[in-house]
Amino acid sequence: MSETPQPKAPISVFLVDDHALFRAGVRTELDSITDEVRVVGEAGSVAEAVAGIARTKPQVVLLDVHMPDGGGAEVLRRVRTDLPDVVFLALSVSDAAEDVIAVIRAGARGYVTKTISSKELVRAIARVSEGDAVFSPRLAGFVLDAFADRPGSAPISDPELDLLTPRERDVLRLLARGYAYKEIASELYISVKTVETHVSSVLRKTQLSNRYELSRWASDRRLV
Predict the structure, then answer these.
(1) How confident is the model at residue 55 (pLDDT cuts 50, 70, 90)?
(2) Sheet order of strands, 134-135 included
(3) How far is CA 15 from CA 45, 109, 185, in A?
(4) What is the pTM assigned to this prediction?
(5) Share of the chain above pLDDT 70, in %
(6) In the beta sheet, which residues pair with residue 134?
(7) Do the beta carbons of residue 168 and residue 202 sit within 8 Å?
(8) Beta pairing class for 110-113 and 60-63
């Protein structure tokens, strides 16, 4: 006698957006149209998101790109190391290339705009939870151009990376590879004091606090 198949458990979802009305709308829509997903929490800031994701350990985080205290990429940087199994899907009003690339470089599995329908959003959540990458149609080209390294592909700017001078990038690249300050100075034919000045400038511009965070930041942007 065959066993009756058990119903599939819903995908746990955490919402991150600084607009409470938008979060409420998404939660209501998801709750009303499907049993495939279950909203387990929400947050309106980076700090709230980091704490809430750590507490609820959702399968998928719907992540806004722009928030007053840092945005989606900052949430990713703070969460990914400790919770590598959590999948992030950016859900943003922005369809700018630099926003798409920044959050994908930080570790998001997909990027859809807020014009997406409720049913399409449920499908996108299900797909990223299963390991697929999901993008709104016109956004996929940005990602291909940024990561394919093919002739003629348009360079995609990273606003945070663009803040650094070429010399600061050189110092950061060697720092991320594990070089000591003295070794960096020797490699670049500059003084240790100058290396320290460049590192301080990079820390200030990236708003990071230590060498470990800088190394991870550089790795996310493929500088290493």
Answers:
(1) very high
(2) 37-43, 11-16, 60-63, 87-92, 110-113, 134-135
(3) 11, 15, 45
(4) 0.64
(5) 84
(6) 110
(7) yes
(8) unpaired
